[in-house]
Amino acid sequence: MRKLRRFLCGRLFFCLAVALFALAGGIYLAVRLPRLLAPVALVERAFSFAAALTVLFYRGIPETKLAKFALLAFLPWVGAIAVLFFGGEAPSPLPVPPPAQGDLIERAAALSETLCGAGAVTAAPPVYFSDGRTFRNAFLADLARAKHRVYLEFYIVAEGKFWKEISALLREKAQSGTDVRLIIDGFGCALTLPRSFRRTLKAQGIKCAVFRPLRLARDAARRDHRKLALIDGVCYTGGINLADEYVAEKIRFGHWKDSAVRLEGDISAFYELFLRTWYMLRPSERLPAPPTFSAGKTRAAIFFDGAGRFERAFLRLFPLLAANAKRSLYLFTPYLSLPASLLEALETAALSGTDVRLMIPHIPDKRAVFFLTRAYARELQRRGVKVREYTDGFLHAKTAVVDGRYALVSSCNLDFRSLCSNAECGVLFEGADDAEADFLACWQRGCEVPKANVFSRFFGRVCMLFAPLV
Fold this sequence. Notes:
The chain has 470 residues and is α/β, with parallel strands linked by helices. Helix content is 44%, strand content 19%. A nine-stranded mixed β-sheet has the order 1-9-16-15-14-10-11-12-17, sandwiched between helices. Strands 2, 3, 4, 5, 6, 7, 8 and 13 form an eight-stranded mixed β-sheet that branches. Helix 6 runs antiparallel to helix 11.
């Protein structure tokens, strides 16, 4: 009942009510006012044509344009509203860097420097977490040791035992003078937090900002999908949100398989990213300067995407990983829908002799997205990529392992929304033994992708048509 009350009082319910009201109005006009159908149809065509022109002149990727044209053809009113209100700004021109030389870290660092302004960093050997239970202990221990800053940016924060443990530590740190800030996403937390959440944190001395609260606005579909924790000189990132199912405190779909990494060293680029996002949400607030940290010995490259369709770092990073993989490329992803450029990059790597493997969930959390994931998995299999499904529960990890030497742990799914739309972050680092062992253990326990029947083949193809919008 509490979730129902929260839903009825939230912005998501208001948006759904407006959509249903518009639908009911359209049905009423179609049934009760037939004489108005001709002018209404004329207005509909003009509205859709204006939206189509907007799509035509937008500098987006071709797949997104085609999906929007298909939506306009099938649902003119809904499609036009979606295009006009949930479109995006044109990408900004990017500088052309000098040719990069060296190994994968150096080439990735050059890409990061160009797209993100981050580049190469050095740190202590990263700690890889293969699930939320091991992550939980280390994360809470670092929170307890925090003295100066605790900056958290998470797509989902949910009430529960895990958040109670975190909030108790945050309250204690804020009262002792530590600068505690939290960024949450308006959509990701729409049904997981009460409306009084921000007031409660403010009373405890914790600063909280919401990334794009739910409302009808242009570009509202772009979300802050990052999972980022900055605790003094320590950084956590990966796929784990601050909710009970991620740390095995609540069971959903069996064992929740996820991954994260702990990085200690030169993480000032992540602090700059967090403060830049905070300033975007609170432009009137005076911000502290990003701290500086001492270097370590392990090389890494920091990657992140902005709030809009600008650099799209991960859309360019994954083809770089595929092109530089000499022996193997292993990938975890919970959701799969790939632009043509990445499909061709993985196909090229597989055809050139690289052992390209991909693991997806066997148990779905979203049925339509699951059909889409399997449709793309079968397409990759036809192109020479090996695909298996994780059977122990739900696979939510977003990890890539290259040649058993380099690992990328990030918040980025291998789908259009993460690659082309959402704000994401991650770290590519040397020393992938633990990540590779984790992947191979899951691979051994996985199963083959089942053959498609007539219905799943048809529905999968329909989902693929609208994949860039899902």
